[in-house]
Specification:
Its main location: cytoplasm. The chain is an alpha/beta fold. The protein has 28 helices and 28 strands. Helix content is about 45%, strand content about 20%. The termini are far apart.
Length: about 775
């Protein structure tokens, strides 16, 4: 037949065969216009399937080469601009070309004379018999097949018509229909159809077989469930799985190195596990409890290293300074070697962040050859975190003490209780009270965890606690610990720590060798004074790490490393870090030390303060002005400091009525006094500013200057007695950094200064004062 031009519709996931009647929903504008064009002519349209259904505007390469010429029987308009058309396939045709007419597309197609070629009579009979046999097998396999359709197929005696009828109603994918549409040979058509029906029959058979297997498995599970409910025959029906688990637990309990009461308790729990359902939640609770108890090192101990000289060498190797802590550890070791007693002291290291409290504990563990385990208590507010949960609760678990023992693998580890001052309490209990039993040597021999429910001996554990501030620790808990203060480092100590530990550590950590980077002492001192402000060395280590990273980058640029990170043996570069080029590595200086005033002044006094990161100096300014006798306080003073200011004012008024500091009797009624501490955004509080405030007020009232090279610390009473203060080492270090040459200290603190190194006191005159009159004699320039 000759080629014809017809409007055409590209179909998605659908193939129409000759003789098929079906409904098609179309929404694309060109398809709708093609339909309208066809309805306006002879209602004939060409339908061809897209190869990729996601293509929106297909061209000839996106379409199969064979489609179907169809007759439009009915058009129905649906909402959302959708047309539903009913078509009847007429002839298959080959797509030759496409012409885009703008609103729609026209297809040039070549129709086929006949859909199938005609077989001879014998071949026709053989094909019909074979197809009828396959149809019967398919009907047996697919119970959903229509009986009327089966009868219609079996009544057809012409192979060509039979295959056409089967293809119209047989359930298959559109790609399969496209294959049948393109076949022209009757024998090939028969082979494809027979193969398809045979494969479907096999698939139905396999599906039936799988369904039977699934049913059998479900029946088996149901049977096992019923058997689990029958406790008497449980072990016989579950292939001995529970029996083997019970036997395994029994062997482990018998081999456990623990006291008799522990084994008796575990055997009792094991008998209870036998009686409960194997997969029940209660069985899982019992099983988990037994496993946790078996993991505990009841009588497992490591052998301590009793060599005092080895311990001294390790402690000196890991840390510079810290004489008191090292001596305390060596004393304990010496006493234990002589007495063979295992009473372990509870040591609490108190000091600012970054001073090495945690690392000294790790070194002590290494020196004594003890297993080391750390418990971080910061933010812990639930008592169950310490004592464990009751076993009856869902998700119950042992407390952190028991977990730490399991992790250590021995009952005599060194256990670090880190950040003990940062625990809190809420409605779930007081965590600090829960620690009382743990840290009391008279009670911790029988520590009772709520989950384990058996006494656990903690007397062999060496506890070391760390804290930044003792004010957050309750008095009963403090009473159970030996407090050792880890004070701020001097600049010289920081220099030695950096040279002996930090630089080596960071060079290795950043993949360098010791010969690659060289730090001068002046560079280290500049990092300490100009880039860090801290009591410890944590930020110092960060700055050294930053220098090392910059050094790695610089070595790359100089060709010391190849692209793959290996060293270039031909290039030997050394990065030298000096005080002159330090800004290239760390940028501009971050801190500038406050220094003493050049000249003495009226109403300006320098006090000393302790902070969480070390010591600092506070310049207190006092001024007077005409007024009504009011006292004004600014600079974010806390309540304690405000009370100190009022006490200081009362004392000054009491001594100005007579003596060498006498002023007019009505001066305080006619003048206001304003006290200010610069850096008003920083809160300030504490009980050691009384002498400074009183000196500043008296200087402002009398007009007498205060020496500029002077700093002082101490609290006063209304009668002028100077009281002792804390944090003296940090305060003296701050005074030294500010180039103060004379410091007034309460006489009650004389015993503290005797313990300080000469390095701290070098170049400073320490004057001990017992009352305010001595303070004024040493501070006012009369």
């Amino acid at each position: 037949m000759k080629n014809v031009n017809l409007p055409f519709i590209p179909l998605r996931n659908l193939t129409v065969l000759p003789g098929m009647t079906m409904q098609i929903d179309i929404s694309r504008k060109k398809s709708i216009m093609a339909t309208n064009k066809s309805m306006g002519q002879n209602q004939t349209i060409f339908l061809v399937t897209q190869i990729d259904h996601e293509v929106v505007d297909p061209d000839i390469d996106d379409l199969y080469k064979v489609g179907c010429i169809a007759k439009i029987k009915q058009v129905v308009k649906l909402p959302n601009k959708i047309l539903r058309i009913q078509v009847e396939g007429q002839l298959k045709a080959e797509l030759c070309d496409i012409e885009d007419r703008g609103d729609y597309c026209l297809a040039n197609v070549a129709p086929f004379v006949s859909h199938f070629s005609k077989p001879d009579e014998v071949t026709n009979k053989a094909m019909v018999m074979a197809l009828h046999e396959l149809i019967k097998r398919y009907a047996i396999a697919d119970l959903k097949m229509s009986r009327d359709l089966l009868s219609d197929w079996l009544a057809i005696k012409d192979a060509n018509k039979l295959m056409e009828a089967i293809l119209k109603d047989y359930p298959m994918d559109y790609t399969q229909r496209q294959v049948f549409l393109e076949v022209t040979d009757i024998n090939e058509m028969y082979e494809l159809l027979a193969k398809t029906m045979l494969e479907d029959c096999e698939a139905f058979a396999i599906r039936e077989e799988l369904a039977i297997k699934v049913k059998n498995r479900v029946d088996k599970n149901q049977r096992e469930y019923i058997l689990r409910e029958q406790i008497g025959v449980l072990n016989e029906e579950l292939d001995g799985k529970l029996v083997s688990e019970i036997d395994d637990f029994k062997q482990k309990i018998e081999a456990l190195d623990a006291a008799d009461y522990v084994k008796e308790k575990l055997f009792k729990e094991l008998r209870r596990l036998k009686e409960v359902q194997g997969s029940s939640s209660e069985a899982n609770v019992q099983r988990t409890y037994i496993e946790n108890c078996l993991e505990l090192p009841w009588n497992v101990q490591t052998v301590d290293n009793k060599d005092i000289f080895n311990a001294r060498d390790i402690l000196d190797e890991d840390h510079y300074g810290m004489k008191e802590i090292k001596e305390r550890v060596l004393e304990s070791l010496a006493v234990r070697n002589i007495t063979t007693r295992s009473d372990a002291p509870i040591i609490c290291l108190v000091g600012p962040p970054g001073t090495g409290k945690t690392s000294i504990a790790r070194s002590v563990a290494r020196a004594l050859n003890k297993n080391y385990v750390r418990i971080c208590l910061g933010g812990v507010r639930d008592e169950a975190e310490i004592r464990g949960h009751r076993k009856t609760y869902i998700g119950a678990m042992p407390g952190r003490i028991i977990d730490a023992l399991v992790s250590a693998g021995s009952n005599n580890p060194l256990m670090l209780l880190d950040e003990i001052d940062k625990m809190s309490s809420d409605y779930k209990g007081d965590t600090q009270s829960a620690l009382l039993e743990v840290l009391d040597s008279e009670q911790n021999t029988h520590f009772l965890d709520h989950y384990i429910e058996m006494p656990v001996d903690l007397s062999n554990v060496l506890f070391i606690a760390t804290a930044n501030d003792l004010s957050g620790i309750s008095r009963p808990l403090l009473d159970r610990m030996e407090i050792i203060e880890v004070n701020s480092y001097t600049e010289n100590e920081k220099l030695h720590i950096a040279k002996e530990h930090l630089i080596k550590k960071q060079i290795k950590k950043n993949g360098l060798m010791q010969k690659d980077v060289k730090f001068t002492d002046k560079a280290i001192n500049k990092i300490i004074t100009s880039y860090t402000r801290e009591a410890g060395v944590r930020n110092l280590e960060r700055q050294i790490s930053k220098v090392c990273r910059k050094a790695v980058k610089k070595l790359y640029e100089l060709g010391a490393f190849l692209e793959d990170g290996t060293r270039n043996k031909d290039v030997k570069e050394v990065i030298r870090v000096t005080d002159k080029n330090l800004e290239e590595f760390l940028g501009k200086e971050k801190y500038r030390r406050e220094v003493k005033n050049k000249n003495s002044d009226i109403g300006i006094v320098r006090g000393l303060a302790w902070t969480a990161v070390g010591g600092d100096t506070l310049e207190i300014e006092v001024n007077t002005m005409p007024g009504k006798g009011e006292l004004k306080l600014t600079g974010s003073m806390g309540d304690v400091m405000k009370e100190s200011a009022m006490i200081a004012l009362s004392y000054v008024r009491s001594i100005t009525e007579k003596g060498k500091y006498k002023v007019d009797i009505d001066f305080f009624e006619k003048h206001n006094i304003h006290i200010h501490i610069p850096e008003g955004a920083t809160p300030k509080d504490g009980p050691s500013a009384g002498v400074t405030l009183a000196t500043g007020i008296l200087s402002a009232v009398t007009g007498i200057k205060v020496f500029a090279n002077l700093a002082m610390t101490g609290e006063i009473t209304l009668r002028g007695k100077v009281l002792a203060i804390g944090g003296l080492k940090e305060k003296l270090l701050a005074a030294k950094a500010a180039k103060i040459t004379k410091v007034l200290v309460p006489i009650d603190n004389e015993k503290d200064i005797e313990e300080f190194d000469e390095e701290i006191l070098e170049g400073m005159e320490i004057v001990y004062v017992k009352n305010m009159l001595e303070v004024l004699d040493n501070s006012l320039d009369i």
